[in-house]
Specification:
5-stranded mixed beta sheet, 4-stranded antiparallel beta sheet, 105 residues, Immunoglobulin-like, mainly beta
């Protein structure tokens, strides 16, 4: 058992990038209704191909956090109404991307 473990480690050491951890950002922002926080609203991130890559809900303080989003251009969807989300283009940068507060109806 010990011998195969060391062979695995030796093999991984020969693969370029095998020890690197893929880096990603946390997208964070706040949803507001006037001066009050908007809680319990679904927030999703769409990639360039319009595929949902991540999702979250706003907390009691209106904040949402969407971890593990790779750097790049995305669309932020805020699902206030079931069939028509509010959409916003966003640019994600590592390690964190702060999105401007969003006013929801």
């Amino acid at each position: 058992m010990r011998k195969s473990r060391w062979m695995t480690v030796a093999l991984l050491a020969t693969i370029p990038g095998a020890w690197q951890v893929a880096s990603a950002a946390t997208v964070r922002g706040k949803l507001m209704r006037g001066n009050a926080a908007a809680a319990g609203i679904a927030v999703t991130v769409l990639n360039a191909k319009k595929v949902r890559t991540a999702a979250s809900y706003s907390a009691a303080n209106g904040m949402y956090y969407i971890p593990n989003v790779k750097a790049g251009s995305y669309t932020l969807e805020v699902w206030v109404k079931p069939n028509r989300p509010l959409t916003f283009p966003i640019q994600v940068k590592e390690p964190e991307s702060d999105i401007n507060p969003v006013q929801v109806p």
